[in-house]
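TA notes, week 10

Several of you asked for a full example with nothing omitted. So below is the full record: structure tokens for the whole chain, then the designed sequence directly under it. When grading your own attempts, check the secondary structure regions first.
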């Protein structure tokens, strides 16, 4: 069947000319992967390899998605069309072209759009949606994925990524498009007037809001030096601007400040991977810097390195999140500024340590599925009801949100607050690692880690589903000779605890399994929503850091044996 679709693309009169030669030179395996299925929305929208094919990101699949989104907007009436859509994009290949084409296609439906003049961070796109009171937004980005990828994310009127119930309404309309190659984006001269280019005015409003998060803006900053890299992406200008205005001393990794779509000067643009810190570490050693801050290309994630005992330690997203929680909550408490009914959000695969810190300061924790849109949904809910007051939200995957004038992960906010925390604790003779170790000593020793099984193509996707299905059917009673005390299945919405089955409530159905262990640890498994991977999350509790580390390795080996 995929060959029929391939032939239709190859000979279609509207095929973008740049794809013709690529199609003609496809081998059988690539052809199958490009056409065996239709690219789908995952935890962060639609993301995939660039190139021709129904299972690729290209001008035709982007147009198909835009037709679905346009029809969704039109179904909400003339007011939604007039309010329009904000559109942003990152430094990747074809990002600007896809963004402008999106605006032109929406214009053919008489939908207004506000398009950034050049690349901007994902959080600023979220901010722009709220700033212009738009009906929604589009961000063209593949976030932290390799250079071969691009993607497309949709936002609602709160600047939050579309949650499944809303995304399903768009997807139904997308799937109804019979021929993506027949779609054209040719607005009339009058419709062209619906496209507004935006830039510096929005930047200034965004910077002002980021600077407003400071808890101790007058803290002495002369003793802390920061190394910062945007990894060739969109954080370059906003983080530099915010640091300069706030008075921080920083050195940028200039080789990684160019908006290079090939990410030429970094092994990886993903702050979850050690390779993204290589050049920044060279700078840090040369400059004797206190901290390293690394942002991913669309500036929603931030990674942290800390000089401690003469060497640099890279913190995980769980660890940097814990340090931020401790600093923010301790300062709010000390200043008497902790609001009534405070609430923090994190996900079902985020470490238990953050929740323990929150509990210490009287802050409730609510968990969501993976994907910051679910945290954004919670933020929007409490903005409306005022039942609880938001004080922090974060994921293990290096993303956090400090103040919700944005409704997505916001690395510029995180960079500013981490810098402030580093100054505050250095004045007390501590590094951020010291703060983390103090938390372990007080609340328990945890090692959090993630491993991935990369399985590409149709066979890989089927294998991932087989792994989840097999585990779901099996009643795993112990892992590494440790009793499983509770099992949660987020797809079948069930809990199995001490042999008693009950319903798992409060979550959208999702292909996630989670095992709670007798020693206070847990392990979770889920397919990635953005990459061809099956992900394994470990939150392992020990009597010391060394004990937690040794147990983590043992649990990882046990899981390898369990899946075969």
């Amino acid at each position: 069947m995929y060959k029929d679709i391939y032939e239709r693309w190859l000979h279609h009169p509207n095929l973008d000319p740049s794809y013709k030669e690529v199609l003609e030179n496809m081998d059988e395996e690539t052809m199958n992967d490009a056409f065996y299925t239709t690219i789908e929305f995952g935890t962060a929208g639609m993301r995939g390899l660039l190139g021709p094919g129904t299972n690729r990101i290209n001008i035709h699949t982007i147009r198909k998605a835009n037709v679905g989104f346009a029809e969704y907007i039109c179904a909400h009436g003339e007011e939604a069309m007039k309010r329009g859509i904000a559109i942003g994009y990152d430094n990747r290949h074809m990002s600007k072209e896809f963004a402008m084409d999106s605006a032109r296609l929406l214009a053919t439906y008489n939908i207004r759009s506000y398009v950034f003049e050049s690349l901007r961070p994902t959080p600023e796109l979220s901010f722009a949606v709220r700033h212009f009171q738009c009906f929604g937004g589009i961000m063209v980005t593949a976030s932290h994925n390799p250079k071969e990828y691009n993607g497309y994310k949709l936002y609602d009127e709160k600047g939050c990524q579309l949650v499944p119930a809303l995304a399903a309404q768009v997807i139904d309309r997308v799937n109804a498009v019979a021929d993506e190659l027949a779609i054209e984006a040719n607005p009339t001269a009058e419709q062209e007037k619906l496209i507004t280019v935006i830039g510096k005015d929005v930047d200034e409003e965004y910077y002002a809001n980021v600077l407003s998060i400071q808890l101790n803006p007058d803290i002495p900053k002369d003793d802390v030096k920061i190394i910062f890299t945007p990894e060739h992406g969109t954080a370059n200008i906003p983080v530099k601007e915010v640091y300069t205005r706030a008075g921080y001393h920083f050195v940028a990794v200039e080789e990684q400040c160019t908006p290079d779509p090939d990410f030429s000067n970094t092994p990886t643009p993903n702050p979850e991977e050690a390779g993204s810190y290589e050049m920044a570490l060279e700078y840090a050693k040369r400059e004797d810097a206190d901290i390293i801050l690394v942002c991913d290309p669309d500036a929603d994630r931030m990674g942290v390195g800390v000089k401690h005992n003469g060497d640099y330690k890279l913190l995980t997203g769980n660890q940097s999140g814990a340090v931020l929680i401790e600093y923010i909550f301790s300062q709010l408490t000390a200043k008497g500024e902790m609001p009534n009914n405070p609430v923090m959000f994190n996900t079902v695969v985020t470490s238990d340590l953050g929740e323990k810190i929150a509990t210490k300061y009287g802050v409730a924790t609510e968990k969501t599925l993976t994907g910051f849109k679910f945290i954004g949904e919670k933020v929007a809910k409490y903005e409306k009801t005022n039942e609880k007051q938001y004080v922090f939200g974060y994921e293990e995957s290096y993303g956090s949100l400090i103040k919700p004038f944005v409704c997505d992960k916001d690395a510029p906010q995180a960079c500013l607050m981490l810098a402030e925390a580093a100054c505050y604790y250095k004045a007390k003779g501590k590094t951020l690692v010291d703060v983390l170790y103090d938390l372990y000593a007080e609340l328990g020793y945890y090692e959090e880690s993630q491993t991935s099984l990369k399985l590409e193509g149709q066979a890989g996707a089927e294998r991932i589903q087989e792994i989840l299905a097999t585990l779901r059917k099996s009643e795993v009673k112990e892992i590494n000779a440790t009793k499983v005390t509770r099992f949660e299945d987020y797809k079948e919405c069930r809990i199995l605890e001490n042999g008693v089955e009950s319903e798992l409530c409060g979550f959208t159905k999702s292909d996630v399994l989670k095992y709670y262990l007798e020693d206070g640890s847990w392990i979770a498994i889920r397919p990635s929503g953005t990459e061809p991977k099956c992900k394994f999350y470990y939150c392992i509790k020990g009597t010391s850091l060394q004990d937690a580390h040794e147990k983590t390795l043992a649990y990882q080996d046990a899981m390898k044996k369990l899946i075969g």
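Residues 545-563 form the longest helix (19 residues). Use that as a sanity check on your answer.
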